[in-house]
Design goal:
Layout lengths: L1 H32 L12 H17 L4 E6 L5 E5 L2 H9 L3 E4 L4 H13 L6 E6 L4 E6 L5 H14 L3 E5 L5 E2 L6 E4 L2 E4 L2 E4 L4 E5 L9 E4 L6 E9 L5 E6 L11 E5 L2 E4 L2 E2 L7 E6 L3 E16 L2 E9 L11 E4 L2 E9 L9 E5 H8 L2 E2 L3 E3 L5 E3 L20 E3 L9 H5 L6 H37 L1
Parallel strand pairs: 2-3, 5-6, 17-22
Antiparallel strand pairs: 1-2, 4-5, 4-19, 7-22, 8-9, 8-12, 10-11, 10-24, 11-14, 12-13, 13-14, 15-16, 16-27, 18-19, 18-21, 19-20, 20-23, 21-22, 22-23, 25-26
């Protein structure tokens, strides 16, 4: 009876060890699979840049009195809004599509100027809709009936091409890719790493905190990151956080996080184009995509008015403020605010990155390049271009692993992270030890039984 129990225990031990091998192998396989790139090969940008550049060049050539903006069509071709047939022929000869409209950009800008001169109403926003040749005024749920009526009267005096819309939720800043950064004011997301050639900084949203705000890393470490040394909000919405050591300590400062340990390598800065597919990453909601729907947008937040923003239909949530907007590895903006969430969708506004870089006197930190002396140097941000690509064809950009920002994290927290290969390897090692141990025990038991039998037989 005793021997039967021993054999049963050994069988159970062997089965547990084999099960551990299977489980450990599965964990390792899944962990390695999670390292699959976001996009192994970015879509070539040459044709997209040519298309966007053609539209912008035609608008510049014909002037704002004969045009009303340009955008990227569903087929990736540039479309230019023009006010007369002669201009339309010029556009088509240049290889772009033309749409004849009634109102020029001068008229549309005159309408937005009239709205700006009216008494400020928090919870409103307006933009030029190039595709419909209208100025769209939006009001969130916080706008009273009386304020809505007064604003509607202003719009009526401007002209019938001003469209009034009520929107759900409220236009708020998103204080709460994209890594979380914390201050006494709340949680935001890091935007892009930038430098002035001597010191390194984090570019993020201006409403995240005023000058002299202290910032700390999110996650387990809570280490101090730096201090806000420059900020513009309201008016614009960008700020600069100087690293405590004066230099960034991450191994790949040109990579932004998009979730699940993945990242996208940033190679330059650009201005977005209406119709362009874009991606946003934030510490609350992760990676999401959508399209640019408006440029030079004015938003009346409760804290103040911000102008010159990019409007998109990409969702965002509190805590995503300051997170990066990009496409094909090109930096486009940092998250400012909006309405809705990533369950129902909504509108999100972004501070254009090129304006922020110019105002702050910094450039993006991009991948190091070899210098003539054999050393490495930081590549400057490429000159701003209107990079775009046909909707549905664009990707976030070239993938890269997210640099380790957990310096100081405990060994236990790393080993127990299910996204790490280490837990699976530990289980495999333990299971192998258990198998060897049970085999040894069985061999030793058989050896001793043989000795007893031999002794009894031969005396």
């Amino acid at each position: 009876m005793r021997h039967a129990r021993r054999r049963m225990v050994q069988r159970v031990a062997r089965l547990a060890a084999v099960g551990g091998l299977v489980l450990g192998g599965t964990m390792v396989t899944r962990a390695m699979a999670d390292e699959a790139p976001v996009n192994s090969a970015a879509t070539p940008l040459s044709s997209a840049r040519d298309a966007a550049g053609t539209g912008a060049a035609l608008v510049s050539r014909l002037g704002t009195g004969r045009t009303a903006g340009s955008w990227i069509g569903a087929d990736g071709r540039p479309v230019v809004a023009v006010t007369d047939r002669q201009s339309a022929q010029t556009v088509r000869r240049a290889g772009a599509d033309a749409k004849v409209v009634r109102h020029s950009m001068n008229e549309l800008k005159s309408a937005t100027a009239a709205l700006r001169s009216a008494p400020r109403v928090a919870g409103t926003a307006w933009s030029v809709d190039y595709r419909t040749n209208q100025v769209v005024v939006q009001a969130d749920r916080s706008v009273s009936t009386a304020d809505w009526s007064r604003l509607s009267q202003v719009a009526a005096r401007v002209g019938s091409f001003v469209r009034m819309e009520r929107t759900e939720g409220g236009f708020t800043t998103r204080l709460g890719g994209a890594q979380p950064i914390l201050s006494s004011g709340g949680r935001c997301s890091a935007g892009f790493n930038v430098t002035d050639g001597k010191r390194d900084f984090i570019l993020t949203a201006g409403h995240c905190g005023p000058v002299n705000s202290l910032w700390f890393a999110g996650g387990d470490t809570g280490r101090q990151l730096g201090t806000t040394v420059g900020s513009d909000f309201p008016g614009s919405d960008f700020s600069l956080i100087e690293y405590s050591s004066g230099k960034t300590d991450v191994t790949a400062p040109d990579v932004i996080a998009v979730g699940d340990g993945k990242g996208v390598r940033i190679t330059g800065a650009a201005d977005p184009t209406v119709g362009q597919r874009v991606f946003r990453s934030g510490s609350t909601s992760g990676l999401h995509d959508g399209q640019v729907t408006g440029l030079d947008v004015t938003v009346n937040y409760p804290e103040g008015t911000v102008t010159g923003l990019v409007q998109t239909n990409v969702c965002a949530e509190p805590g995503d403020s300051g997170g990066p907007l990009f496409s094909e590895g090109i930096a486009l903006g940092v998250t400012s605010g909006g309405n809705g969430d990533c369950a129902k969708g909504g509108t999100t506004f972004f501070q254009p990155v090129t304006k922020a870089l110019s105002a702050l006197g910094v450039r993006l930190i991009t991948a190091p390049r070899q210098g003539a002396d054999g050393g490495t140097r930081q590549s400057p941000s490429p000159a701003p271009t209107r990079a775009a690509i046909a909707p549905g064809a664009a990707s976030p950009g070239s993938s890269a692993p997210v640099p380790d920002t957990t310096a100081g994290a405990t060994l236990l927290s790393r080993l127990t992270d299910t996204r790490n290969v280490a837990p699976g390897l530990l289980i495999i090692a333990g299971s192998l030890i258990a198998l060897v141990a049970t085999r040894y025990i069985r061999t030793e038991r058989d050896r001793r039984a043989y000795q007893r039998y031999y002794s009894a037989t031969w005396g």
